[in-house]
């Protein structure tokens, strides 16, 4: 599995952890890694828990990509939309355990899950 999205399977539960810098920006590489993790979860017939680092689920799309060109921004948003639809149609439940902020596309990850869990921060 990728370093950008780690995958851990335990007793039929796959935990996917976003690991892309301090804000877990959603980049094309993160989306590829996320999809690979979802592929593995389907093969494992696992319930999925998506989480991030302490204090943040995701700060949204990678601003470096979004500001690099109109074409790059359009492609990233299209890939992100496809990921959201995939989450919504995943054959096993997806739970997002939100460890903190979920901004922009991070909020859409929450909305694309079957269940959402969040707790008050420090």
In short:
With about 120 residues, this protein is an alpha/beta fold. It has four helices and seven strands; from the N terminus they run ββαββααββαβ.
Specify the helix fraction band: 25-40%
- The structural class is alpha/beta
> What best-fitting shape do the alpha-carbon axes yield?
globular
Query: What is Rg?
Result: 13 Å
| Widest β-sheet, arrangement of strands | 1-2-3-5-7
CATH superfamily, by name, is: 2-enoyl-CoA Hydratase, Chain A, domain 1
CATH class: Alpha Beta
**CATH fold-level name:** 2-enoyl-CoA Hydratase, Chain A, domain 1
Mean pLDDT: 95
Low-confidence stretches: none
List the secondary-structure elements in sequence, H or E: EEHEEHHEEHE
Largest sheet: 5 strands, mixed
| DSSP strand content | 25-35%
- Tally the helices: what do you get? 4
Q: Give me the CATH architecture, please.
A: Alpha-Beta Complex
- Annotation, overall tally of beta strands: 7
**How many domain regions?**
1
Terminal CA distance: 31 Å
Descriptive overview:
The protein has 122 residues and is an alpha/beta fold. The chain has a single domain, classed as 2-enoyl-CoA Hydratase, Chain A, domain 1 (Alpha-Beta Complex), CATH 3.90.226.10. The chain has 4 helices and 7 strands; from the N terminus they run E-E-H-E-E-H-H-E-E-H-E. The chain has helices spanning 28-44, 63-66, 70-88, 105-111, and strands spanning 5-10, 13-18, 47-51, 55-58, 94-98, 100-102, 115-118. It has a 5-stranded mixed beta sheet with strand order 1-2-3-5-7, with helices on one face. Helix 1 (28-44) runs parallel beside helix 3. The model has no long low-confidence stretch (mean pLDDT 95).
């Amino acid at each position: 599995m990728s370093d950008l999205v780690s995958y851990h399977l335990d007793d039929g539960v796959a935990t996917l952890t976003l690991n892309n810098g301090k804000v877990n920006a959603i980049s094309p590489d993160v989306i590829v890694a996320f999809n690979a993790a979802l592929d593995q979860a389907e093969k494992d017939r696992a319930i999925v828990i998506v989480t991030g680092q302490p204090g943040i689920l995701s700060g949204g799309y990678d601003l470096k990509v979004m500001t690099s060109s109109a074409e790059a921004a359009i492609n990233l948003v299209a890939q992100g939309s496809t990921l959201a639809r995939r989450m919504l149609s995943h054959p096993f439940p997806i739970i997002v355990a939100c460890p903190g902020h979920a901004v922009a596309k991070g909020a859409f990850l929450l909305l694309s899950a079957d269940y959402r869990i969040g707790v008050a921060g420090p």
